[in-house]
# Entry
Amino acid sequence: MKKVNAILLTVLFLTAINAGYAGTVAAPYQVGTWSGFKTATITWTFDDGCANQFSTALPMFNSFGFKMTFYPVPAWSPPWSSLQTAASQGHEVGSHTVDHSLAGLSDPCQIWELSQSQITVNSYIPGNQCVTIAYPNCNIGNQSLIDDYYIAGRTCDYGLMPATPSNFYTIGCHLLGPCCGNNTLDSITSKIDAAGTSGGWCVFLIHDLDSGSGFSPLSSTILLQSLQYLDARRSTYWVSTFTNVVRYIKERNDVSVSETSNTGDSITLAVTDTLSNTIYNYPVTIRRPLPARWGSANVSQNGLPVTSSIVKVNSTAYVMFDVVPDGGEVVLSRGIYGDFTGNGVVDLNDLSGFLKFWLVNDCNGIVGLDVDEDCVVNFNEVAVLAENWRQMP
# Structure
């Protein structure tokens, strides 16, 4: 009997450890499926290190503040100085193996390709974490070996990724250019729209632009128009690098959020996960209804201010903020009503901004100003503003 109980205990233990470590988010807190509670996510990847990626595409992306992911081939002498500049601007540099070869090689050769490309990229790009890979010719090698070096891999299979891919080592993408019929604005925006409809993740792959000698060059005019299309829809789409999207998904699915104290004017949160903090250190977006009588909120993590905003969702005002799991204690504190400039005191600068909303009747447009939630800024708000005049927190 003891032997049977021991076996049952072992089975239960193994079941538990294999069940995953999905976190728990306590009500009323919510974690965004995507950063900023955007509807969908778009990632632009560029393979092979072609010159036009840096002379033409990079300035375009920088002008919109969108980030790119580069997958250069070290054996092809990529422009490391240009990649260093791109990385310093927040773009990602990942692995495309050493000499554009992986599938079909022996395991020792695959290990060399996987490890040495990662080492080479990180040696040329200080501070960069080369933790994702784009498979050469879209052919996946031995996944058990890839898993030793990378957290995700991109193939060239067509299709839209769901909010949580079933396998992070087979992330599909849309290959752009004349090779595949994806060389018109409509062909690209239709895929962006599909991501918006499904709430998923759309990954694009480009090799070269215009008259470049790389594979299937896309018109830079079409690329620019595609970025303009996204720019006009920033409230819907989060545009980020391949690695940051992977980080966000895994953290979002693993994070735990709980209150450790609540005094009425200050709320302390524990935001944690079970992932490696060395790699998984990207902020996740959290929101909660703005507590009653809080006209605004200040947010900090580990003693440092965190950018936050007040948003309205279905007539409910929320405080929304980005924090890093395991990045330290998160504190939400009641802000001073009227401190619209955020300098810690209500003064003439705040009054000037306040008057712009005087008698404005718009439930969504005056979130954070409408203290009594009657959808208009009037003398009720003036009374609170006057009470806080020249007061410090």
Notes: The first helix runs from residue 2 to 18. Confidence is low (pLDDT under 50) at residues 1-21.
